[in-house]
Amino acid sequence: MLQRPKPTDSEADLLREQEHFLTSGAPSAANVVRRPDKRRGEAGEAERDSGETGGSQRDVVTIEDLPDQLPSLTPAPPKKSRFKAGRVTFEDEDAEERLDRNDTHISAVLSKIVERDTSSAPISLPAFTGMAFPKVLHRSGTNDQPPQSSTGGKKSIFARQIAAQRLKEGRTADFRKQNLPTETNMDTDQPPAVSGPTLVSGQGLGGSDGSGETMRIHEENQAKLQAMSQSEILEEQKKLLSQLDPRLVEFVRSRKAQSAPSSSSPSKHTGDKSNKEDLPLQNASRESDSSGANVLFQKGQEVEMEEEEEEEQEVSPPPAVTEEDLPVKPQKEWVHMDKLEPEKLEWMRDLPAPRRKTTKKAMQARFDFTGNLIAPTEDLPTHLGLHHHGEEPERAGYSLKELFLLSRSQIIQQRSLALSTLANILSQARAGEYLSVLKGNMVSSLLDAGLVFLLRFALDDSVEGVMSAAVHTLKALLVSAEDEECLDCTFSWFRGLASFPLLPTAQEEEDEEDEGLDESLKETAKEKEERKSDHDVARQDVIKGLLKMKLLPRLRYILEVVRPSPPVVQDVLEILTRIARHSSSSATQVLDCPRLMETVMSEFLSTSWSPSASLPPQSIYGLPLASAMKLLRVVATSGRHACARLLNSLGVRERLSCLLSAEPSELLLEPTEALKITTEAYRLWAISAGYGQACKLYIDLYPALVKALQSVHRLLPPSDPLLPLQLQRLLALLSLLTQVTHTAGCHQELQAGMVSSQGNECPPPPPVSWGHVTGLQAALLGHLKGFLKSLDNPVQRDSSLTVIPAYLVYLEAYYHQLSRQNCFKPVETLQELELLTSEVLLPLMSHDSVQGLIKNLESSSVVCNLQQSSHLGPETTPNLPGLACSGWRNRPGLVAPSSPFPLLTGLGLLLETVTGIHKGLSKKFTGLLWSKPLIRYLRRCSQATPKLSHTRAWLLRHEHHLLYLLLRLAHTQVPTEPEVAKHASLFHQVALVLLPWLLPGSEYLAHELLSTIIFSKDFISEGHSGGPEAVELGELKLHEETQQHTSPSLQTVGALLREACVQLPSIRGCFLTHLAHLESSVLVSRDALLGHNPWIKSHLLPELTGPILPLDWPFLPLVSLYERTGVSDGGGLAVEELPQGSLQAVTHCLQWLLLLEVWREDALKAVLPVAKLARLSCVFLCSSDLFLERPVQKLTWGLFRLLTRGSRLDSLDLNEPPPGLASFQDLYSALLAQYEAVSFGDRLFGCWILLPLQRRYSAAMRLAVFGEHVGMLRSLGVTLAQLSIPIERFTSPPEDSLPVLRLYFRSLVTGTLKLSWCPVLYVVALSHINSFIFSQDAAAQEVETARHSMLRKIYYLTDEVLKNHLLLFRLPQQHSELGFNTYEQLPPIRAKRLANVVGLQDSSNDKGD
Asked: How far is CA 1005 from CA 399, 857, 953, 1087, 1093, in A?
């Protein structure tokens, strides 16, 4: 229990009691409350004012102990306000602040009563009369009242009588006008003659002569103005405006504007010119006001206006409203309409025409109800309903801010209209209509303004119309119809049924609260997610935010209870599809939402229905919908378990059987809807077959499938609008047959595996076997031949080119699985493949239509056209990623109808399988690889550097497949075909740049490239065609021209390259070993790409966090060794103590890097030079003597020479931080410490230390060497000949850092830096000190003092050798004995300077003596 202080308590006791009281949390006995001074509008100023004005004799009345609430006047019970419940309040809002805003209690008025200062106010005495009492005025007896207009506005009758009396007595009508005369115009050329000042009123001046002092100041100002010329006035005005606060200038102008109507008539002629001069500044200020009021929506709704010079017209006030101006004439019997009041009728006047403002600032965007942007100068009629009483009533349209306000209106129609308009704006923004006219990203601006919460609130509206508009707007925000079309078009491509989850790519930073905690104490990702607010979650991920706000139960309620109109149902189903595309967890939430999927299945995928009586139907409840089937398909894509739940628990199997057992024309549905829903049913079945599920259904519906295949050649004519839907249905059917073929091909392997493992860890064999699918191949091959013949018919050519790729993918699946079966007959299969090649493949490749498509490779490529596709970015936002497919049909691209990618990918797949079975056929396809369009496309790819994003990843995946297949085809032909072998280096270059591009899900492709092409001698043609010898000859020529004597010689690079070529198999094994952590991902990717369907867990690809391999993957063995040993052990382990095989791994890594730097320089161009230097520095940091090993030493010398040549040295920017490091300086500090500890004066390590000391790099590294690590100068014995960097890069330009110069001088004078110990830095220090002491440039006093001090100290040095070197140094000479040349004697200018400095010192010493 807390005790009161005692007199005997010490200060320590009091502090301890205080701490105990604070920790207990008990309430204090008294509170200090500072009431805000409402008279001044600021908190706490009353106290200061009272102190400051204490001497001005003001009375302050303070009323204390007033109650905070009004006392009850009657004993009646308190009334409850029915408006209080609807009033919005916030938990964190301060009750006292809210009370101060709305307080009308007497305490708010009487808390501080301050008497007004009347010391300088004029006193008016009544007029003296001869009567005892003033005469009583009667209205009936006074007829000489002045008119109302002459008395200064509307006044009472009594006031007008007094004014008339004073006029009779010779007084003025208003005494106040003597002190407030007409204002002076700041902007006029000549000041008008006025009777008093404008701004200075004299109020507050002590004494009784305040007004006289004011007039004296005014007359003095007037005299000064009269004595100045017009140019001087303008100059002073500009100077004054530049010095004053803009708000003060605006205040002065507002005062002038307020007094303008009451100005006298003689001043009007001066006002015209001043108004014209004043207008630009006023317009600018008005623009700044309007833009500041709308700062929330400034990003997305500013219209870029071109600058246009127009003459400013005089803005005259509009004439007063007369009875003729009114659209409705007032009648006499109307109450209070006998007299017109112009100021109240202004709103009925016609709006002025919109006038374009002469401003460079952006203007607020306004939209019509269809989402179209309205130009600021467009004059639209008012009957369109686009004019309103907003901020700019003369402009038509609604701004985003106004639409947000309308969406929360109490009027139902306004809410619906605002939401519908926002939906149209979002649709236009998704289509990219605003990119050229609006600044910023429209969607991002709307999301930042809280659109997600606005829509979520609107979904809960009890009015169905408002709720429907909110659903439509939410669909416009989340769903892109063109994105879905593109994904549907690529479904039949190779692995087109797989897709990336549409998750935001931004990575969350680790919370500061978790830093330093044990892993077991840190919060999990799920706990962090639950702790976040809805706003934080929605800001990072819109879909997650909506799920957290219980969107799914609300959508279920709308479908189940509200039962809205057909468009709303379609919108809800599309929203659910987009949510399921977000991630597997989101798809699971859709599946787990209570009664949601049951409602979809029972209401929109029923097994029995009756045809609708009207078209379109008034209600679609009870009818099967294609959008509902598509929702099931996207949910099934998320994983095999979700697909199994759909098939077994929700009755999808029965729905598929019901819809696909009959022809589309027999389904009692509209033809378009019948084709769409059967197409989606085939796709859902293909997804299920891709997991090895629903194969029993294949056996049951086999007759229906055969019947559907037999009707393929009865396609509709090209002019029929249903033909695209029929083609999509055929492609979906072919995708289904392809997946069933893959599943049947695994039956035999699973059967054998189940027998050998007794069912442990082995999926059960599917019910469909290879015998069930062999009968389809002949029919489908006949279809392919028929479509091949149709290529000659221009009418059917486009349809044939659309479906041929799907047939090629099916044939690849068939022959790939056939080669794995026990029933495989090699001889018959080889003959069959030869027949296939001669009758189908070769005619297809040589056809004019296919050759024309191949010419479109470059224009359709995503990799080759990054600049052209860069405009797609603003259509999506980081927290709501999309595919940005707007306008994909009308521009070249990977999915466009003119794209050759689906055909070439299918052809490449089939050629890889065919040549793998029948290797003799590979030579027949050589023409494809050395065709000019393909070679040109590969050259463009080898020079490209694509960037990763959701908008490109899904397309890049398909292009990577084609590039990989072309490289695989080249791998079979380069060793045997000379024509193809000529381009081996190009294929190798493409393989090297493709490897770090590959995305998650393509790990198997990366493994195959590393195993076959990357380290293949056949593709490194320089290794066996005189490449090393050519390098040696080139280095020999360079050696003769420069006459350098380097150690070791660059001629050793040729021998190192020869050794590297011999070690290529070992190098490949080294890198595969270091990538072993990807083994599980490689196996998952292999199952998906090779069609091992029963092992596939999900068709949803891994999250798009980045490419599989980093750009600097060739440095991987070196970096991983440093992370294992250099970081933990500080680089102190000897080679013998390193993990087994470390020396060999580092050697292989350096060999591969040397080979790439010499022959494949472009393959590493994406790696910054500073990153290469940082990675290679691990050679010195991961061990104490690894760099001393002979093979490592030779290879590192060679790489150092290559990195420090000419243009490469120019591109080395050490001021830019290397990827993965905060700065290069941190790495350099570690290198310096390691050099001092373990270098033993090694020349290679010394060159590495000297490289960052070049003059163009930061002086901090030179300070580190000559300051903290000056002891290393004793062992840094690299000679100028051994250094492959020109010495001029260290000495030019002269050093300008005074601390560095002082350290240079100190190390030379103290003998720390000697020519025999550290030749390079000795020359560098001499050069900079010599330039500094004899510099003639003007400098600060501190620099001049340092120059004189150094020169005097040098002159009095006892070491004559160092003294001569410092004074007579001329230029660095890299090949001379000293490393520099000297003057024989000091030049006259320098001698004179030395004499002056030393003479000054001597004279000062004499004076001192």
From this structure: 51, 22, 16, 12, 18
Q: Is 1382 helix (H, G, I), strand (E, B) or coil?
A: strand
Nearest CA among 1149, 1163, 1150 for reference residue 995: 1163
What is the per-residue burial (b if ≥16 Cβ within 10 Å, else e) of 515-526?
Answer: eeeeeeeeeeee
CA distance 1378 to 1314: 11
Structure tokens at 163: 């004014």
Nearby residues of 545 by Cβ (< 8 Å), 6 or more positions away: 452, 534, 535, 537, 538, 539
Q: On the CB side of 151, how many CA atoms lie within 13 Å of its CA?
A: 18
Q: Residue 492: what are its φ and ψ, rounded to 5°?
A: -85, 0
**pLDDT tens string 750-769:** 888 777 765 556 788 999 99
* Cis amide leading into 805 (omega within 30): no
Cis peptide before 553 (omega within 30 of 0): no
Q: Encoding tokens for residue 35?
A: 């009431």
Which letter does DSSP use for residue 1267 in this model? I
| 516 contact partners, CB below 8 Å, separation of at least 6 | none
pLDDT of residue 551: 96
Side chain identity at residue 796, one-letter code? Q
Phi-psi region of 335 (alpha: psi -120 to 50; beta: other; left: phi over 0): beta
CB of 151 within 8 A of CB of 127? Answer: no
Measured CA to CA in angstroms, residue 776 lies from 766, 771, 821, 831, 1401 at distances of 18, 10, 17, 19, 107
d(CA 988, CA 538): 45
Amino acid (1-letter code) at residue 1386? L
What is the separation, in whole angstroms, between the first and last Cα of the chain? 81
Cα–Cα distance, 1398 to 1392 (Å, whole number):
10
Residues 854-895: tens digit of each pLDDT: 999 999 998 888 655 444 444 678 889 888 787 777 788 888
Whether the CB-CB separation of 1301 and 1328 falls below 8 Å is answered with: yes
Distance, CA of 1084 to CA of 171 (rounded, Å): 104
What six digits make up the tokens of 261? 């109507």
Top-confidence residue, 215 or 981: 981
- Rounded distance, CA 659 to CA 316, Å? 75
Q: Is 305 left (phi over 0), alpha (psi -120 to 50) or beta?
A: beta
pLDDT digits (tens, 9 = 90+) for 346-365: 777 777 777 665 555 677 88
DSSP labels, 702-727: HHHHHHHHHTTTSPPPTTSTTHHHHH
Euclidean distance between CA atoms 582 and 541, whole angstroms: 10
CA-based diameter of the chain, in Å?
145
Token code pair at residue 840 = 């189908």
Helix (H) or strand (E) run with residue 222 in it = helix 210-227
Contacts of 1249 (CB under 8 A, 6+ apart): 1231, 1232, 1235, 1265, 1272, 1276
Question: Going by DSSP bridges, is the β-strand pair 302-303/112-114 parallel, antiparallel, or unpaired?
Answer: unpaired
Cβ neighbours, 10 Å, residue 769: 19
Helix (H, G, I), strand (E, B) or coil at 336: coil
